[in-house]
Design brief:
mainly beta, seven-stranded antiparallel β-sheet, about 0% helix, about 40% strand
Length: about 400
């Protein structure tokens, strides 16, 4: 079946709206439409809304062509995999609205047994979007004995946060009139979401089943400025976050059981990430590919660079150190770091599952570099950090 359905993506509530039968009989196609909103949890960021103080209170979230959402239903009569991918097409005049259809033209089908209670689990993006094999893992396992969650299955979803978060592109913030301020567009596939609806029975023709998506990553957007005393270009090779050996892990695989998740009142509980080298450093390469190889991004004096990290949401992020590596000559680099703290010295704590904004970091030229190595400056004298995040 090849069906298209209208999608409305609202501003205030995260969600995937959904399931509507073709007619009054079981065994027919389940219809879905998608609904999304703020908190930075969709496929591309739109315009931000600010309050009278100039602080961001919300941010539009837009669909992009071909976005895939995967929906699982253990009680579905077809397909045998019990899941299907649904593709989103944004409307030409409103990028935050679109249409959705089963990507393979075979939607999930209602159970053939009247009165069956259906449970739905949804993930964004679909694992099919992750061509490198990372992203979502998902398993449905039957539960025997004492079923504490009352759903008969364990619906375990696994998220893979990479150590190196390569941007989609790095370019001037204004295509038509360049400003010299550069923005690294994040790979939004790592801004994961999960959704769930439980105990759904034979809805009528016009009834809908709501699946409210919950953001399953902590996003931190940084804006830094070239404050070199010499007024020279700041040639960025890499930016990174790191934590102490005993601190939170910034990358790796983390999982949760959606069947055990009380989605109406609580956040999903994710496990401590598993990784191979400690997981205490996550980086964003800030280079572009040229005929001569990877070249650093040159930020002119007093101009800025903006970029976003996506972190596992298993715990609040704190005791973070921000670092930057710049190229200062042939095979010569300088690395400088700064603890993320307020002017009082108290560390900044980033609440899990939300998007945060850190702005006003002035990058000094710092100490002299040494040939073939790195110079680490642990304390910057110019670090006016203003934390501004969505409540």
């Amino acid at each position: 079946m090849n069906r298209k359905f209208f999608v409305l993506i609202a501003i205030a509530v995260l969600g995937l709206v959904g399931c509507q039968k073709d007619d009054e009989y079981t065994g027919n196609g389940i219809r879905f439409s998608v609904l999304s909103g703020t908190e930075g949890t969709k496929t591309s960021y739109g315009e931000a809304t600010t309050n009278d103080d100039g602080k961001r209170t919300s941010q539009d979230i837009n669909w992009t062509e071909g976005d895939l959402v995967r929906i699982y239903c253990p009680q579905a009569s077809a397909p045998s995999t019990l899941f299907e991918d649904y593709s989103v097409t944004p409307l030409s005049d409103k990028a935050n609205q679109g249409k959705i259809e089963a990507a393979n033209n075979d939607p999930l089908l209602w159970s053939n047994t009247a009165g069956t209670l259906h449970n739905f689990y949804a993930v964004y993006p679909s694992p099919a979007s992750m061509d490198d094999g990372s992203g979502f893992g998902f398993s449905l396992t039957s539960i025997t004995g004492d079923d504490v969650n009352g759903e008969g299955v364990a619906a375990v979803v696994t998220l893979d946060f990479p150590q190196e978060q390569k941007p989609v592109e790095i370019k001037d913030e204004d295509d038509s009139t360049p400003t010299g301020n550069y923005v690294a567009t994040p790979d939004m596939r790592y801004l994961y979401m999960v959704a769930k609806a439980k105990g759904i029975t034979e809805p009528g023709i016009k009834d809908q089943v709501f699946l409210s998506f919950f953001p399953s990553a902590t996003a931190i957007e940084f804006n830094i400025q070239n404050a070199y005393g010499s007024k020279a270009d700041m040639n960025i090779v890499e930016v990174f976050l790191q934590t102490p050996a005993t601190g939170m892990k910034l990358w790796g695989t983390t999982s949760t059981d959606l069947a055990a998740w009380n989605y109406e009142t609580a956040k999903p509980l994710f496990s401590t990430p598993e990784e191979t080298d400690g997981g205490h450093k996550a980086s964003i390469p800030f280079t572009t590919t040229t005929d001569a190889g990877d070249a650093p991004t040159a930020i002119a004096w007093e101009k800025t660079a903006t970029f976003t990290f996506f972190l596992p949401p298993y715990v609040e992020a704190k005791d973070l150190t921000f670092g930057i590596t710049t190229k200062v000559g042939d095979d010569q680099f300088a690395t400088r770091t700064s603890a993320l703290s307020y002017s009082t010295g108290a560390p900044i704590v980033f609440e899990a599952f939300k998007k945060h904004f850190v702005k006003g970091i002035l990058v000094p030229e710092g100490a002299t570099w040494i040939v073939g190595g790195n110079v680490v400056v642990t304390d910057w004298t110019e670090t006016p950090v203003d934390l501004d995040f969505d409540e």
